[in-house]
Structures are given as C-alpha cells and as structure tokens.
# Entry
Amino acid sequence: MLENRTTPKNRESGQVTLMHLLKLIAFCMPIAAAMPELEHSGGGMLRYLVAVPSALALGVLIVSLDWKLGRTVWLRSQRYSKKAQNAITIALFVGELLWIGIGGVSGFKVAALIGQHVPR
# Structure
C-alpha cells in the first residue's frame, strides 16, 4: 500500500524539511558555542549583553549566506539529470554540516574575543 504513494508535485507547500532544521541548528550554533565560553571566562552582565546580539547577528549572517548559496545551486541544478541532482543534494547536505561547524567555531571565537576585550 505504501508503494503506491507518490511524492507531492508541489515542493513549495510549506513543509519543514531536513534542510530547514539544519539551517535552524546553524542559526543556533553561534549562541550555543558562545555561552559556555563566556561562562568559562568569568561571565559578567556586560559580556553577555555584547555576546548574545553578536552571536545572533552571526547566526543570521550564516543562515542568509547558506540560504542564498543553496538556493542558487539548487535552481541551477534543475536542468541536470536526477542522478546529478542527487549528487548535488548530498553536496548541499554536507555543506549544511559545514555551516553548522562554522557557526560553532565562530561563536566560540566571538565569545573568546569578547572575554578578552570587554570588562566584567
């Protein structure tokens, strides 16, 4: 019975996909990486007031770059064969994992920089 189901033709139906969830993780990674580093460096209200908006801005920047790059690559791949599209999908998935790692490292670096230059 499940074999007779087909995939929906309308791909823009508002469904949340794995790529959306990975983009959400990439958005949250700078914040999640900055908080433990700030706690390790001694915390302080001023440091948190500088680090949290900086990490949020970094998350927005990462997701917007990721979204534009992924959209461009995917729209250009529509004229290729299904096999090539599958390879591009895998490459985009690996790219999402790379963006998550970049978000974590950059959030840590921003918190370390703030910990060095902003008083408690």
